[in-house]
Specification:
Elements (H helix, E strand, L loop, with lengths): L1 E7 L4 H4 L4 E10 L4 E4 L4 E14 L5 E5 L2 E5 L5 E5 L5 E9 L2 H7 L9 E3 L4 H13 L7 H19 L9 H9 L6 H7 L4 H12 L3 H19 L4 H7 L5 H12 L3 H8 L27
Antiparallel strand pairs: 1-2, 2-8, 3-7, 4-5, 4-6, 4-7, 4-8, 6-9
Helix pairs in contact: 3-4, 9-10
């Protein structure tokens, strides 16, 4: 015996232009029937919360699946899988499509060559799937936008839940972020971690979906924006604080990457605060109490 609930959606062209659309969502458990062999023209993320089964690759190789696990079903790739008939499994799935899938694949969030992915914990992804299921009611006026936005959230939750990645980030990435503003080359960072530049590139690409150079640049420019917005430091001093001795080079780099010059960014975003901004992230569940001024 098994239980199946599913809902399919048909977003319009305008919704597709948002980048991702949800085409369907389902929650199933029990001794579900075998799926495939079949080939789809869109993506499906199947999150297996409990149970076990098997997956058959197009070349005939068969691999065991043990929950928690993720099945990536990607366009044009044949797939064939099923839960064990004796135990069954508990799954949630989301069908999705859109132009943003190309970029998510480039960043490593979607892996067409890795259809079976072990998860450390399926709680986060299953929570997102449950929210999509609740939003997928036919009388929801925000149906397509709300479910499409949740697909972005699902891809992040799946990335965070991968068993081969630390949920709070790789230690190498944390160290790079900590030391990003030091005057060090990529080779210097690699040597500090006992790695070759090629090994560092592989580690950063796997963990952050980009090169070490782009990762360091993102951290540096983020810090530069904070200094420009929160202090009155001259641009040259901001450049030095984030690792650039040549302020002209920093300005050109900032302008090319951000799309506006440092002085213009400051004019638009400046929020000068004595002593700078707080480094403590506020708790959105416990907002500070602000007393209202008495009515005049």
């Amino acid at each position: 015996m098994y239980h199946t609930w599913m809902r399919f959606l048909t977003p319009g062209p305008a919704h597709h232009r948002l980048g991702l659309v949800c085409l369907g969502v389902g929650l199933q458990y029990g001794a579900l029937p075998t799926v495939g062999p079949r080939t789809l023209d869109h993506h499906v993320a199947v999150v297996i919360n409990a149970g076990a089964g098997w997956y058959l690759y197009p070349d005939g190789r068969r691999t065991a699946i043990t929950a928690p696990a993720l099945l990536w079903l990607t366009p044009g790739v044949p797939h064939h899988y099923a839960p064990d008939p004796g135990t069954g499994w508990d799954e949630g799935f989301v069908d999705f499509s859109g132009p943003a899938t190309v970029t998510y694949t480039e960043l490593g969030y979607i892996e067409p060559d890795r259809p079976v992915v072990a998860l450390s914990d399926a709680t986060g992804p299953r929570g997102v799937i449950a929210r999509i299921a609740r939003a997928a009611r036919r009388d929801n006026p925000l149906l397509e936008v709300e479910t499409g936005a949740a697909v972005h959230e699902l891809l992040v939750a799946l990335r965070r839940a991968r068993a081969d990645l630390a949920p709070d980030g790789d230690q190498v990435l944390k160290a790079l972020a900590r030391d990003a503003c030091l005057p060090m080359s990529v080779a210097d960072h690699a040597a500090r971690h006992g790695m070759t530049p090629a090994e560092l590139r592989t580690a950063v690409r796997r963990g952050a979906g980009c090169s070490p150079k782009d990762y360091l640049l993102g951290v540096r420019l983020g810090r530069a924006k904070e200094l420009l917005a929160a202090t009155e430091l001259p641009v040259a001093a901001v450049a030095r604080r984030v690792g650039y001795d040549d302020p002209a080079y920093f300005s050109r780099l900032f302008t090319r990457r951000v799309g506006t010059a440092p002085v213009r960014f400051r004019a638009q975003q400046g929020r000068t605060v004595p002593g700078g901004w707080s480094n403590q992230v506020p708790d959105p569940t416990d907002p500070p109490m602000i007393e209202h001024a008495p009515a005049p």
